[in-house]
Amino acid sequence: MTNKIKYIVVPDVHGRDFYINDMNTFIESSDSHMVFLGDYLDPYPDEGITPEMAIDRFYKIIEMKKNHPDRITLLLGNHDVHYFNGEKRGVRMIYAHYNEIQHMFIDNIDLFSFVKFERVGRNNVIFSHAGFDFAWIDNYSDKLGICDSEHFDIEKTKEHFNYKFISGIDWDNLYKSDESWRRRFFDVGSSRGGWGNHPSFIWADVTDHLFSNIRVKNCIQIFGHTRCNTGQYVKFDNCYMLDCRQVFYVTENGSVLNNNMKPLTKNGEKYKEEYIAYLKRASAFFL
């Protein structure tokens, strides 16, 4: 590991151990910062990870954060928040250990954040669990102070959908201080079985970003949440979806590298084509 690596990015954990070598060695071998993108528990049934294994690995992540508070960022995902706010939404949970996990989060809640904003080289970078989608910001534009409900202006909302605006909001405090906003953090779009087309930044599917005509301006977004095959990241425009059971690296100039230290190539259009083909096959089944 060289000192050119500024951030080590760990996508969705879900009880896995693919990040452990990096976590155990990065303090001694580099001056980089480790960013976990959330979803530490609730392993997938087909991956052979027991709830006990997932909980034990989560304890170790928390302990590492306590030992190196300024070197590790722990972001929150949808599979984390439902343990301490009671919002289950029908997703996988470790019900047998619910009380223990709830206390793990509540007792250590100050160790976690929803979003991380950084300046890397010439790039503004937003780290989040699922990425900011315009539809969600648009849906709450009046409450976010972009425009009032009596004088709604979609163009004004678009102008403010940028790094400066999003990074100027204290998302952690917004969640803690406003009960109505806590519910909005759990908005689920139709791509994930929700009732609307405005998924939040802990619920947006990568396909929501693929079909959005508006990206967050003047920044790079790095997020996870949508499980892909090992190594199958999705890169389009200024967005990187990295939930593929591998560690990634962000260099001092803002380049994103895979675990072989190779820059990620843009493949969003191909992923979009494959997704459209899947939708057509699925639709044909019901005709």
What is shown here, in short?
This protein has one domain (5-286): Purple Acid Phosphatase, chain A, domain 2 (4-Layer Sandwich). Helix content is 35%, strand content 15%. It has eleven helices and eleven strands.
What would you say this structure looks like, in words?
It is a single chain. The chain is α/β, with parallel strands linked by helices and 287 residues long. Helix content is 35%, strand content 15%. The chain contains eleven helices and eleven strands. The strands form two sheets. It has a six-stranded mixed sheet with strand order 4-3-2-1-10-11, covered by helices on one side. α1 links the parallel β1 and β2. The model has no long low-confidence stretch (mean pLDDT 89).
List keywords for this structure.
287 residues; alpha/beta; Purple Acid Phosphatase, chain A, domain 2; 5-stranded mixed β-sheet; 11 helices; 11 strands; 15% strand; globular
Outline the secondary-structure elements:
Elements lengths: L4 E6 L9 H10 L3 E4 L14 H17 L4 E4 L2 H8 L12 H10 L4 E2 L2 E5 L2 E5 L6 H6 L14 H7 L2 H5 L3 H7 L1 H6 L21 H5 L9 E4 L10 E3 L2 E3 L6 E4 L4 E2 L10 H19 L1
Parallel strand pairs: 1-2, 2-3, 3-4, 6-7, 7-9
Antiparallel strand pairs: 1-10, 5-6, 8-9, 10-11
Number of helical stretches of at least 4 residues = 11
| CATH-defined architecture | 4-Layer Sandwich
What is the averaged pLDDT score? Answer: 89
How many domains, as an integer? 1
Named CATH topology: Purple Acid Phosphatase, chain A, domain 2
Biggest β-sheet: strands ordered side by side in the sheet: 4-3-2-1-10-11
Globally, the shape reads: globular
Cα radius of gyration in angstroms: 19 Å
- Mind telling me the CATH class? Alpha Beta
Strand fraction: 5-15%
Beta strand count: 11
